[in-house]
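ZP: hey, is the zinc ion complex queued? I don't see it on the tracker
AM: it wasn't, my bad. submitting now with these inputs:
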Amino acid sequence: MDVKAAVAFEAGKPLTIETVQLENPQAGEVLVEIKATGICHTDAFTLSGADPEGLFPAILGHEGAGVVVEVGPGVTSVKPGDHVIPLYTPECRNCEYCLSFKTNLCQAIRGTQGRGLMPNGTSRFSIAGKMIHHYMGTSTFANYTVLPEIAVAKIREDAPFDKVCYIGCGVTTGIGAVLYTAKVEPGANVVVFGLGGIGLNVIQGARMVGANMIVGVDLNPQKRVLAEKLGMTHFVNPKEVEGDLVAHLVELTKGGADYSFECIGNVNVMRQALECCHKGWGVSIIIGVAGAGQEISTRPFQLVTGRVWKGSAFGGARGRTDVPKIVDWYMDGKINIDDLITNVVPVEQINEAFDLMHKGEAIRTVVTF
Ligand code: NAD
Ligand code: AHE
Ligand code: ZN
């Protein structure tokens, strides 16, 4: 079938709206009509050329919601008409990783996913016979996409697509990092670096679990109002701190953060996030994605003296199990998504949506088809 997609032909170039040919779903795959998709900083990261796994041409996008239109042979867990959220972290419930219950990083299809292909090693997308890569196994910047069955979470039908698409990455990543990765306890002091689409969800996760101090750190003072609405108790702008930022944060939290979260992708900030943690027990969670070739460093003494460095992908959430619950939290008014979706644009304006992100003028822009 012909579908409408925003195609990334080359790193660093704007996306172009194209008519793309999409093949039928094969065994174990489903065809989904994407109704809405958010734009995450990771899409911009890959488009910039900084992603070691970035492939071109590709259809980017990994924060979508839509409806199953057709299923391939052997698909049993969803049927046409089901509402779903695509999962860039699938949940096969059968691989060593899923069965370990120690991680959400299902590896059943990770190899082909990283090569921009469906699990059988081919792409369903092409233009005039030339192959177009899938991206993160999801490719939600298209009005129809094909996904492996294990990479869709079935959700309730009354949930609005243009809001719950954000649960496909940002909401789950931020709230999940607090609940599932860090397991922040009531009364903890939390420091969040970067108050964008991810960091604001870390803040609302910290508020949900009853954290004590929730300190937000961002260079952009315009992020303050929304962060406070979501639960931030203290705002720190590094540009306004006299002297060392880490020392300032340790003093503010009376000894250091019990938990810190890096939600930017800046390796220097990752070090600050670790080092502002409390001696003896502070845990720092890296969420931000850093570019090819970048590395983190600290004095090993920081770890010897009890600080812990961890990372979190998709908030540690098991997609098919946890995403429908997070949709319920939104529908029950337990989490705020509406205020974080600052812009909604038709797919024809998708490049303007990337510009808004780069200028720091949007938290999340949702693209509709
Ligand atoms: P965003 O652009 O919406 O937010 C980034 C925020 O960081 C902005 O508010 C910006 O002002 C602030 N910032 C930038 N440099 C700063 C600095 N030096 N000090 C303090 N604040 C600074 O991005 P986002 O969509 O929230 O994504 C954040 C990061 O998380 C990206 O690296 C993205 O790729 C990554 N990410 C990771 C996962 C995961 O599963 N690990 C999932 C989604 C996104
Ligand atoms: N491809 C990059 C890494 C990108 C990355 O870390 N992706 C996160 C999700 S970001 C969503 O916005 C993730 O889930 N990582 C786990 C995984 O298996 O990809 C690189 O550096 O090669
Ligand atoms: Zn994302």
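AM: back. DSSP finds twelve helices and 17 strands in the chain.
ZP: great, adding it to the tracker
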